[in-house]
Design goal:
Layout lengths: L17 E2 L8 H14 L7 H14 L3 E5 L2 H11 L5 E4 L6 H7 L4 E4 L22 E5 L10 H11 L2 E5 L7 E2 L2 E2 L6 E5 L12 E5 L2 H10 L4 E3 L2 E2 L10 H32 L5 E3 L13 E5 L7 H10 L2 E2 L26 H9 E4 L7 H14 L1
Parallel strand pairs: 1-15, 3-4, 3-5, 5-6, 6-9
Antiparallel strand pairs: 2-10, 7-8, 9-10, 11-12, 13-14, 14-16
Helix pairs in contact: 1-7, 2-7, 3-4, 3-6, 7-10
Bound molecules: ligand T4K.
Ligand T4K binds next to helix 3 and helix 4.
Length: 382
Amino acid sequence: MSASAPIRVVSTEPDERIFVTQPHMAPLDEFIPYLEKIWESKVLTNRGPFHRQLETALCEYLGVDHLALFTNGTLALVTALQALRITGEVITTPYSFVATAHSLLWNGIKPVFVDVDPHTLNLDPKKIEAAITPQTTAIMPVHCYGHPCDVDAIRAIADNYNLRVIYDAAHAFGVRGQEGSILRHGDLSVLSFHATKVFNTFEGGAIICPDAKTKQHIDHLKNFGYVDEVTVVAPGINSKMSEINAAFGLLQLRHVDEALAQRKAIDALYRERLAHVRGIRCLADAGEAVANYAYFPILVENEYSLERDALFEKLREHGIVARRYFYPLISDFPMYRGLPSANRENLPVATDAARRVLCLPIYPSLAHEQVERIVDIIAQAA
Ligand code: T4K
C-alpha cells in the first residue's frame, strides 16, 4: 500500500443493544493536544512525563500517598504478591473475576477459598480463621462491586496471625469509607483501569503503596527489576503503563466526577423502580461514605417468577446484555475445582449468589429512559 492510500477502516454496524457497561471517554478533541506532546517529545514509555503526572494526580484524587501505575490490574496483582514475597497459601474469595486467583497461581501460590458474607458478597471475616494453616501467609480480599470489605475485622485477623493483606480493589476506584480512602487499607491495594471500569485508561492498573520505599521496589519490579543501566535487583516483569495510556488517564480524571454523578443517578433510579418488583433484591451498599456505583447487581430471589438464567435470556431477547458477574465461581473453573476449599459445601453463600446474581447495565451515558425500559422488562416478567 502506498503512503497516500486511504486507510480502510473495518466497517462496524451500529449495535443497538445495551451492554452491561460502556467505557466513559473524554471528548476526542481534548485528547489531541496530549498526543501532540507525545509526538513532539518522542517519549512513549518508561516513566515519561505523563506517567509521572498521572501518578501524582491519582494520589491527590484518591487520597493516597504513593501509587505505581501498571499496564493492567492483573499484572499489578501478580507484582503486588511478588513485592511482599508471598508464598505458600493465600486466603481469598471465590466470588470475583478469575484474575484474583490467577495472580496467585502465576506466583506458585495455593489459593484457599473462603465463603462470602451474604449482605456484601465480600470475603466473610468470620470464616477466615478456620481456613488458616501454618502455610498461610496472606489474605487477598476483593472489594466486590466497589463495596468495601470489613477492613477492620480483616486487619485484626491478619495482625493476630501475622499475615499480609493485599486488597484486590479493581472495582474500588474513588471509594471512601468513614475514615477516608478504602485504598489505604491492607499492605497493598490494587486497582484496575480497564475499559469496563469507572475510571479507565483503555487498559491499566495501579498498586497503592504505603511508603516511598515500597513504591520504589514495585517500580523496579514492573521494569524488569532494573535499578539502573547495570543493576538488576529482581527477576521483574515489564508491566509499565505507556505514555499514551497515562495521558488519556490525565484527561479522564478531569471528567471522572461528572461520570460518577451520572452513575449515582442511575443507581438511585434502579433502586427506586426495582423496590416495587417482588423477588428482585438490589445489593445494598456496604456502608461506604462515598460509593462509585461501578456495577448494579441484583439478586433474583425465589419469589420472582423466573429463575436468574431465564431473566438473563429474556433481557437478551430485548437487546439488554446484562452479565452474570460472578458466575461461575472462580472455584468452579478447572484449574481450581480440585482444591479442597473449592468444594461447594465450603462455599454455600457464594454458590447461592452466583446462581442468583445479574449485573444490570450501568454507565454514565445510559439514558434514564433506557433504565426505565430495563426495569419494565424485569417487572413485566415478574
Ligand atoms: N480483579 C477483579 C476483581 C476484576 O474484576 C478484574 C477485571 C481484575 C482483577 C483484572 O483487572 P484487569 O487486568 O482487567 O485490569 C471484564 C474485564 O475484561 C475485566 O477487566 C473485569 N475485571 C471483568 C469483571 O469484566 P469481560 O470478559 O466481562 O469483558 P467484556 O469484554 O465482555 O466487556 C463487557 C462489556 O463491556 C461488553 O459487553 C461491552 C463493553 N465494552 C467492553 C470493552 C472491553 C465496551 O463497550 N468496550 C470495550 O472496550 O471482562
